[in-house]
C-alpha cells in the first residue's frame, strides 16, 4: 500500500520560513514525479510545485516562484518544500502527491496545516 505522510507544518510570522516534508512508503519516489498542492479555507485546491522523477526539473506556481523550493531526498524517500518569505496568503493545508506513470496524481497525503500570521 502506497502512503504519503506530510509533516512540518505550523504557525509562522509573515516573512518567516518553514519547511514541510512528505515521507513516502510503498513507492520509491526516485522513480516518480511528485508535487505539492495547497487548499485555503473556502478555496479550491491549487498547484504549488512539482518535481520530475529525475529531480532535473522543477515547476512552481507564479505565486510562490522565487520563495518556495521543492526537492527530493531519494535516500530518505522523502520530498520537501522549503518556504521562505512567507505571506499570510500562503496560509493553507499543504498536501503532497505522487504522480502515476499515466501522468495523474494518484496518491495523496493527509495534509499539514501552515498558518502565516501578519
Main attributes of the structure:
118 residues; seven-stranded mixed beta sheet; four-stranded antiparallel beta sheet; 11 strands
Topology:
Blueprint: E1 3-7, E2 10-13, E3 18-25, E4 34-39, E5 46-51, E6 58-60, E7 68-73, E8 78-83, E9 92-99, E10 105-108, E11 112-117
Parallel strand pairs: 2-11
Antiparallel strand pairs: 1-3, 3-8, 4-5, 4-9, 5-6, 7-8, 9-10, 9-11
Question: Can you walk through the features of this model?
Answer:
By secondary structure, the protein is mainly β. The protein has no helices and 11 strands. The strands form 2 sheets. Strands 2, 4, 5, 6, 9, 10 and 11 form a 7-stranded mixed beta sheet that branches. The radius of gyration is 13 Å and the shape is globular.
Q: What is the 3D form?
A: globular
The sequence of SSEs as H and E is EEEEEEEEEEE
Biggest beta sheet attributes: 7 strands, mixed
- Helix coverage percent: under 10%
> Strand pairing plus helix content: what structural class?
mainly beta
The gyration radius over C-alpha positions equals: 13 Å
Strand content: over 45%
**What is the helix tally?**
0
Poorly predicted regions? none
Calculate the mean pLDDT score and round it.
96
Number of strands: 11
Q: What is the rounded distance between the termini? A: 40 Å
